[in-house]
């Protein structure tokens, strides 16, 4: 028996199985269009996993004195729609119908300001540490659910942050196995 998805898990852009952690860092999309998926990585401090600082950063309440590397984060207003932690757990910060602030200066096929029409997924990780099996499983499942709800996001409109901000961003890095991800997306 197959288990192809037929109904949506989204309600007004919110994933019904994600832990909600509301970020004030969002605004309205200029158009309703949602047609691009951007994969990122993040860890705070860099290379440390399982800590609360990513939530705090996106919520706008990070204690910049908690680590010397955080001083650059002072006043930063960023967010993503989703975070997938090392254990595969899923957190959502911004409704997918709204514009989260993850891509920054960016360009996809000549079109700038990718935040306007993109959904951003952060993987807890770094450019050089392999992501976990649970992260790939959750990412594949989430991607399929997103594609069902936002059908303009075709396979060729799923990119890394590095692809839309080359020279400025490197995530999700060499540690991300695009071949595995794409294969799992088409085979499951
Ligand atoms: Zn990024």
TrEMBL record:
<dbReference type="GO" id="GO:0009253">
    <property type="term" value="P:peptidoglycan catabolic process"/>
</dbReference>
<feature type="domain" description="N-acetylmuramoyl-L-alanine amidase">
    <location>
        <begin position="23"/>
        <end position="173"/>
    </location>
</feature>
<dbReference type="GO" id="GO:0046872">
    <property type="term" value="F:metal ion binding"/>
</dbReference>
<keyword id="KW-0862">Zinc</keyword>
<keyword id="KW-0961">Cell wall biogenesis/degradation</keyword>
<dbReference type="InterPro" id="IPR002502">
    <property type="entry name" value="Amidase_domain"/>
</dbReference>
<comment type="similarity">
    <text>Belongs to the N-acetylmuramoyl-L-alanine amidase 2 family.</text>
</comment>
<dbReference type="GO" id="GO:0009254">
    <property type="term" value="P:peptidoglycan turnover"/>
</dbReference>
<dbReference type="GO" id="GO:0005737">
    <property type="term" value="C:cytoplasm"/>
</dbReference>
<keyword id="KW-0378">Hydrolase</keyword>
<protein>
    <recommendedName>
        <fullName>1,6-anhydro-N-acetylmuramyl-L-alanine amidase AmpD</fullName>
        <ecNumber>3.5.1.28</ecNumber>
    </recommendedName>
</protein>
<keyword id="KW-0963">Cytoplasm</keyword>
<dbReference type="InterPro" id="IPR051206">
    <property type="entry name" value="NAMLAA_amidase_2"/>
</dbReference>
<dbReference type="GO" id="GO:0071555">
    <property type="term" value="P:cell wall organization"/>
</dbReference>
<dbReference type="GO" id="GO:0008745">
    <property type="term" value="F:N-acetylmuramoyl-L-alanine amidase activity"/>
</dbReference>
<keyword id="KW-0479">Metal-binding</keyword>
<dbReference type="Pfam" id="PF01510">
    <property type="entry name" value="Amidase_2"/>
</dbReference>
<dbReference type="InterPro" id="IPR036505">
    <property type="entry name" value="Amidase/PGRP_sf"/>
</dbReference>
């Amino acid at each position: 028996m197959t288990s192809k998805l037929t109904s949506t898990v989204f309600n007004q852009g919110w994933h019904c199985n994600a832990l909600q952690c509301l970020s004030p860092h969002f605004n309205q999309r200029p158009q309703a269009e949602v047609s691009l998926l951007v994969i990122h990585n993040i860890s705070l401090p860099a290379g440390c996993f399982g800590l609360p600082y990513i939530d705090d950063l996106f919520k706008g309440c990070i204690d910049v004195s908690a680590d010397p590397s955080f001083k650059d984060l002072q006043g930063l207003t960023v967010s993503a729609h989703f975070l997938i932690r090392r254990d595969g757990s899923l957190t959502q910060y911004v409704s997918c119908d709204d514009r989260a602030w993850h891509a920054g200066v960016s360009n996809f096929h000549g079109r700038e300001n990718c935040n306007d029409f993109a959904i951003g997924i952060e993987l807890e990780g770094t450019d050089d540490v392999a992501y976990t099996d649970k992260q790939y499983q959750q990412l594949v499942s989430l991607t399929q659910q997103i594609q069902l709800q936002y059908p303009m996001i075709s396979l060729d409109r799923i990119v890394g942050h590095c692809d839309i901000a080359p020279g400025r961003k490197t995530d999700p890095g060499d540690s991300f196995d695009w071949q595995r991800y794409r294969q799992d997306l088409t085979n499951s």
